[in-house]
Amino acid sequence: MDIDNQQAQQNDVSFANVWQELLWRGLIQVSTDQGELEKALSEETVTYYCGFDPTAPSLHLGHLVQLLLMRRLQLAGHKPLALVGGSTGLIGDPRPTTERSMQTKEQVAEWVADIQAQVQPFLSFEGDNAARMVNNLDWTAPLSAIDFLREIGKHYRVGTMIKKDIVASRLNSDEGISYAEFSYQILQGLDFLELNRQYGCTLQSGGSDQWGNLTSGTELIRKAEGKSVHAIGTPLITNSDGTKFGKSEGNAIWLNPEMTSPYEFYQFWLNTADADVVERLKIFTFRSRAEIAELELATAERPHERAAQKALAWDVNSLVHGVDATQKVIAASAAIFGNGELSELDEATLSAATAELPRATVSADGLGIVELLVAAGLSESNSAARRTVTEGGAYVNNRKVADLESVIETTELLHGRYLLLRRGKRTMAMVEVQDS
């Protein structure tokens, strides 16, 4: 995230307090006592935390919801604790259907560092309510098994634990659930207890599908410390048709640009359906209620302009990858369709922008326009390719080629090896040229 991005962020002053804004933005799916939470967030400085387990080398779209919730609360004056789970990542929270594959301790430690680096730009680590990064391995590693059972395990009842939705579904499956994953909720409860003791943390946030783990902590603190603390469960991000996004669905939108390129990331938001775009603007951008209302009206009256989608894509891509990367993505989109200079695109952006196009490989001595159109699959035969050229429908790197005998010079290759071929306005293919 750019520093300028962070400085431009603010909560909407048209709301009475941050809790009311969170409700309006649809960020509260479930919570402990709403009245008490609103009172605390309005009258006190609350220390709160969210945990991120290193079960992959990157966070994804669902985690972005948590990061933005944390940022909104920090902007309201509250103190965030960002927990990256060096110990819980060694176990992994139970998945709905199958046991997780455990990673090595070295791999988990590497992912802890990766995710800490991803979390850090979203929060401010300066000022009176500076964020703090914490790792639960710091307090779980020194615990012996006996101490863990005596001091923490004694507060848990197996009957209650097996009623948790995720545990119940796994118990009823053919695979069942291991004791390791079954115990995950105790480890997460321990995190909340430890953060409450060390930093006075009284609020935890997480996805609503983690509600059983969230309340594990509130119950443990009630039993061990005699205190009442709070939890917030945010909604899972789905399309209006119910489609989910995440690792388990195989279509995760990653925050790491090497796993989901800025171009793919931008296009994901740009392709948001009209039915979903307003809710996405509320959750994923810092645009005000008034600004979002204007975009909602534009979507209703002039849907073809896709003003809301463009605003959403710009805001979220800039937030995650920076303004410069977003400008490159927009330039790439324009250049691919003939409204910009392809030669000005860096290789990574060009590759991402053309990733879904048909691709072909040719030798450097086969760069005649007719042969290229056929090799790229844009024409079925030499005669069809010749018709395309004579009718003015053949383009190489957005340059119209009207001469049937034209041979493309190697000086025209993008990054020394690529050609973008187009037939007509929108039918394209990428050709990679190899030395003959």
From TrEMBL:
GO terms for molecular function: ATP binding; protein homodimerization activity; RNA binding; tyrosine-tRNA ligase activity. Its main location: cytoplasm. The gene is tyrS. Belongs to the class-I aminoacyl-tRNA synthetase family. TyrS type 1 subfamily. GO terms for biological process: tyrosyl-tRNA aminoacylation. Residues 352-430 form the Tyrosine--tRNA ligase SYY-like C-terminal domain. The lineage of its organism: Bacteria, Bacillati, Actinomycetota, Actinomycetes, Micrococcales. A motif ('KMSKS' region) lies at residues 244-248. It comes from the Bacteria. ATP binds at residue 247. InterPro entries: aa-tRNA-synth_I_CS, aa-tRNA-synth_Ic, Rossmann-like_a/b/a_fold, S4_RNA-bd_sf, SYY-like_C, Tyr-tRNA-ligase, Tyr-tRNA-ligase_bac-type, Tyr-tRNA-ligase_bac_1. Keywords: Aminoacyl-tRNA synthetase, ATP-binding, Cytoplasm, Ligase, Nucleotide-binding, Protein biosynthesis, RNA-binding. This is Tyrosine--tRNA ligase. It catalyses: tRNA(Tyr) + L-tyrosine + ATP = L-tyrosyl-tRNA(Tyr) + AMP + diphosphate + H(+). A motif ('HIGH' region) lies at residues 54-63. It is found in: Cytoplasm. Its EC number is 6.1.1.1. Catalyzes the attachment of tyrosine to tRNA(Tyr) in a two-step reaction: tyrosine is first activated by ATP to form Tyr-AMP and then transferred to the acceptor end of tRNA(Tyr). Transmembrane segments: none annotated. Homodimer.
